[in-house]
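In the lab's daily routine, each protein ends up as an entry in a very long ledger. A line of letters takes care of the sequence, but it says nothing directly about the fold. The fold becomes a row of whole numbers, each drawn from a learned catalogue of backbone shapes. The protein below has been through that process, and both of its lines are reproduced in full:
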Amino acid sequence: MKLVQGTAPVKVASRRVTFAHLRDREEWLGPLMIAPAILYIVLVVGFPFFLAIYYSFSDITLGSRSLGFVGLKNFAAVFGNTNFRTALWNTFVFAVGSQLLVLVLANMLALALLKDFRGKWFFRLLILLPWVAPISLGTIGWLWILDSTYSVINWTLQALRIIGPKARLIWLGVPYLAMGSIITVHVWRLLPLATVIILAGLSSIPRDIHDAAQVDGASFWRHYFQITMPLLLPVAMVALLFGVVFAFTDMTVIYVLTRGGPYDTTQVLASLAFFTGVVGGDTAEGAAISLYLFPLLLAVAIAFLRIARRSEVT
């Protein structure tokens, strides 16, 4: 009995020493720390992605209990659809238009917030509010702002006598106004994230470089385009990459404001996949539509990361 009691602490101590030894080894500590992130990506991103690939080669629907292999039939049917080609074009217009505005406005805001002035913390708080607030609630607010009857924008334009007292702009009912409206709301949503990223990049530039340019008498535009922009390019590419991924894959703004209308003029690939696969019940074709986004985003990500890497090397 004493022998058993005497050996137990030795075993516990040896286990503790072994665990501490493994914890302090870099080859075990690194995988242990990154394991939760890998598990999250596999469960949240990897499993739905491979399930979408599996469904896209089948004839599955929401009401069917069987699943048959059809090969590339769904991809051919999707590519031959006029609505798909319209949504593909709208996706590029929506992504490129919104990200150009985000990049320009984020640079302007970051340069302004880099200066020291009274109440800077308050303006930083205001800029971050669109990103912190739930996008669905913010978009519902924009739905009232863009309402054809109660629009505060129409009231302001009438008060400024830009439009007539009885004139009303149907912001979400006219194709070009609807596209401009969803781009505006998307810019409002992503502008805080891009501003914070670019502001961090501007803050990381050594102050000696700016002082040397000021001593040399460089003007603001020459200083910005020949010194600041080349040093800021890697960070700007990261912000642009995040924005493009959000623009290609997110459909919250479009779903709340226009549902792809009028006449599918604001329909993008993400919303078309949702309405086809979930609302329409054709799961296989919806999965095929969503997979068309993958090569596009992969090509964009590779191009942006290469540009960022080359600018860091130079």
